[in-house]
Amino acid sequence: MKIIDAVKNRRSIRKFQRKSIPEDIIRDLKNALIWAPSAGNLQARKFIFVFSHDVKSRLVAHALRQSFIADAPLTIVACTDSRIKEKYGERGVNLYTIQDVSASIMGMMLVAHEAGLGSVWIGAFDEAKVSDALNLPHNLTPVAIVPVGYPAESPSAPPRVSIQDAIEEV
Ligand SMILES: Cc1cc2nc3c(=O)[nH]c(=O)nc-3n(C[C@H](O)[C@H](O)[C@H](O)COP(=O)(O)O)c2cc1C
Fold first, then answer.
1. By CB neighbour count within 10 A (0-12 exposed, 13-18 middle, 19+ buried), where does 104 fall?
2. Which residues pair with 25 in a beta bridge?
3. In terms of pTM, does the model score above 0.85?
4. Using CA atoms, how far apart are residues 135 and 62, in angstroms rounded to an integer?
5. How far is the CA of 24 from the centre of ligand 1 (A)?
6. How many domains is the chain partitioned into structurally?
7. What is the CA(45)–ligand 1 centre distance, in A?
8. pLDDT per residue over 15-56, tens digit each?
């Protein structure tokens, strides 16, 4: 699969088959997460792989009852790491670690797509409650939840703004 095709054809998937993900593909997802770029290569990010149905159900409760979080065989909770502050101060906390996590998620979603998996980036959840549910240490803040699994739907592409509207050349 060409990367540009993966970028264009990946869709947010919110319905999943009840089929588990093979270990070798899980390993590819993990590699995609850790090999993303990061500010100063500090890799100020952490990913919690949630397989437990009980924990996934608690995530649903703290994420506007988006039930597909629990339907996916794997749900990844992506966290920033505030210890980046030691090197980059407020800019590290407010900007870099969020970008570090985002870069990881995007690469992982494309690798998932290539493997025939679907995923969806979820931002609507209560950070404090998700932190509690996962017993996260103070330095970690959950900033995205990403359910991953084999798709049980094939949504059409939501529209994008034109290249002319999105991009300016100088
Ligand atoms: C930061 C961010 C937060 C999002 N939060 C949610 C969410 O809480 N629930 C949801 O169903 N989709 C969420 N999405 C997915 C978007 O709705 C989706 O990416 C967008 O509609 C474009 O569709 P596509 O991913 O199929 O191209 C989020 C995406 C991003 C990048």
1. buried
2. none
3. yes
4. 14
5. 27
6. 1
7. 20
8. 999 999 999 999 999 999 999 999 999 999 999 999 999 999
